[in-house]
Amino acid sequence: MDKLQLLHSYQNLLQLTTKKGVFSHLSGEHTTPFSGNGLDFKELREYTTGDDIRHINWKVTARSRNPVVNVFNEDKQLNILCVYLNSGGLYFGSKRAKKDLALEVFGNLAFSSQAKKDSFSSLFFSTNKEKYFAPSNNKIVIEESLKYVYKLDPIGKNINFKNLSDYILANIKQKSIIFLIGDFLELPDLKLLNAKHEIYTIILRDRFEEDLHLFGEFNLINTNTLEDAQILLDKNACDKYNALLKEHDIKFISHLKKLKIKHTKIYTDDKVLAKLKGVFL
């Protein structure tokens, strides 16, 4: 079976596993706080100038002798933007590459959007924009974006979060639900993005990289910069690395909590759909 056949089989599997959706509390025939013409009854209130007379509840009006209107929840399509952060760190993985994990996360979000009839767009970003797929609910467009993910090469790539924020603020005009997918080994400032859009962060990690136990002399290659070096790793070096990464994550999670941004961390040996639904339901 070649790579394209594998991808097609994988897409079929994703569509089956996402049949009920990942963020069903956000999508589908959405009820919102806005008053609209949907079929989901919300409440009764007194008629005010400008109300649609078609919404007058004549039975209640007759009993109360004051005009009363029905108020409905509005059915509203969501704007979903999935941002794939293509950095060299995604190449790493002990169980499987974080790149493969990112593909599965992306696929779950994409097909969930399609199933719920949401507007789905995707942005692939490293130092600058690599590719943007415009909003659509078309299955073919979504499958094209998945094929693009499958072929992405993360080696030698870094994320410039300032450029990312500038690009989204300049080009994504409608308020959107934005899923940021990456390993977040840098500390981004999401304050400006979060002020305009609703942000969700999905942190991809391998358990081995958070609990490094590797002793001896190694030739290590930085997958972001492609620099290599001979390094002697002992217990002290590993403990220092583990402590620095833990400190980094504490700062990042604190930043997200301060902005009230929902987040989840998914490991390469996790069941992706269960982790997504556990956070976004």
pLDDT below 50 for ≥5 consecutive residues: which ranges? Answer: 1-10, 12-20, 24-39
Q: Helical segment tally?
A: 9
The H-level CATH homologous superfamily of the largest domain, spelled out, is von Willebrand factor, type A domain
**In angstroms, what is the radius of gyration?**
23 Å
CATH level-3 fold name of the largest domain:
Rossmann fold
Count of individual domains: 2
Helix-strand sequence = HEEHEEHEEHHEHEHEEHEH
How many DSSP E strands?
11
Query: Structural class of the secondary elements?
Result: alpha/beta
Which shape, going by the Cα principal axes?
A: elongated
What is the highest CATH level, the class of the largest domain?
A: Alpha Beta
Distance between the termini: 36 Å
Describe the structure.
- By secondary structure, the protein is of the alpha/beta class.
- It folds into two domains: 3-26 and 78-280, Rossmann fold; 30-76, no CATH class.
- The protein contains nine helices and eleven strands.
- The protein has helices at 3-17, 58-64, 98-115, 139-151, 161-171, 191-196, 207-210, 235-258, 272-280, and strands spanning 30-36, 40-46, 68-76, 79-85, 119-125, 129-136, 177-182, 198-205, 216-221, 228-233, 262-267.
- A six-stranded mixed β-sheet has the order 6-5-4-7-8-11, sandwiched between helices.
- α1 crosses α3 and α3 (98-115) packs antiparallel against α4.
- The protein is elongated and about 85 Å long.
- The model is unreliable at 1-10, 12-20 and 24-39 (pLDDT under 50).
